[in-house]
Hints:
Blueprint: E1 11-12, H1 16-20, H2 22-33, E2 36-41, E3 45-50, H3 53-60, E4 66-67, H4 86-89, H5 100-115, H6 119-135, E5 142-144, H7 146-150, H8 153-162, H9 169-179, H10 188-209, H11 217-222, H12 230-261, H13 263-266, H14 276-286, E6 292-298, E7 302-304, E8 307-309, E9 314-318, H15 319-323, H16 333-338, H17 354-374, E10 379-380, E11 402-404
Parallel strand pairs: 1-2, 3-9
Antiparallel strand pairs: 2-3, 4-6, 5-11, 6-9, 7-8, 10-11
Helix pairs in contact: 5-17, 6-8, 6-17, 8-12, 9-10, 10-12, 12-14, 12-17
Amino acid sequence: MRVPSSHRDAAQLHGPEFADDPAAAYLAIRQQYGPVAPVLLEGNVPAWLVLAYREVHQVTSDPQLFGRDSRRWNLRDEVPPDWPLLPFVTWAPTVTYAEGEEHHRRAGAIGDALDSVDHAELTRICRRTADQLIDAFIGDGKADLIAQYARQLPIRIMARLYGLREDEIPAIAADLLTAGSQGTGSPSVRAMEAYQRGAGRMGQLVRDLRGQPGIGLASQLVNHPSAGSSEELAADMYTVLMSAQQPTADWIGNTLRLMLTDDHFSLLLQGGRSSAEYALTEVLWKDPPVQNVLGRWAARDCELGGQRIREGDLVIIGLAAANGDPQVRPDSFSEAGANRAHMSFAHGEHSCPEAGAEMGEIIARTAVEVLLDRAPDAELTVAPDALEWRQSAALRGLTSLPVTFTPATVAKDR
Length: 414
């Protein structure tokens, strides 16, 4: 990969040191370069990282200058086929890469479908699913809260909202985990194959639901007045699943880690269910599950944050870095709990739909609350600094969260 002169002294946005403490990396990069910095992704792939809150707002508010269609990328023919981050930037016929009126139409249909989900029913599904997962390990007195809980919960809930059969969930979950592991060392070819299998399953679901209006999330989307082709619908339905799976799982995992390791929250784990909301918001400020969005591509030469951006350059939206901007970040967890000005759901027309963010919060909050009810004395079995973070420039989450607790008997009427 050729490195342009603008990136010869660029910061490295990959590796164990970055994964262990990205906040320190963002601070050092901001101090050296200012609000926009040249960075190198894995494989020395150059990009521009937008770190400042104001500049992130500027980029996400100007889709005509900083477009989402990755076919603009001036280096896309030079990236090797096994580049780990390739699935994040490979154009696909999904709402993610759509622009203009097409994006408005498709995102509107998704937003309406998500808005149709009854929050009371969603909460009941979340509680029932969380209890079922906890039932499987509560008698053991130990568990990995990532593999056995946080990673399992979102896909099982979304599968029920989609009306998928119980026996379909394991294969779909496995493919989602593979497709969502880009940037963590998983070969991009396997990730793309998993994505194609998942989209294929969504294609069958679209065919099953076409012309059969119902009240389920999938049926609402498939039969929406603005729904497009079957190919579009299958791609968008799988995009919704992927967006709900790994970010929500990491939000749950990162919050449980905070409550198990931070002195502000350790006492709250012992029965302080009302504190879950504070912990969830604190994570969105300081350890958001989506830390960087890859990305935007400059539609023409321009200047951003004092840097000269060329047409077709890859621009990374630094959500975590923007949250850490000294101009906006809250000073304490109590302040964070009431402050929702973070960028963790992004901004602009490509941000997470409001209804989707609300659903994610219900799933994450319920997951934390149910676990606190069932295992209030949970403790880590390793030192906090021994916990390992996945090595990803985009997603922030743990590889495992091992705990012990007092074993309990599962109620017969569950």
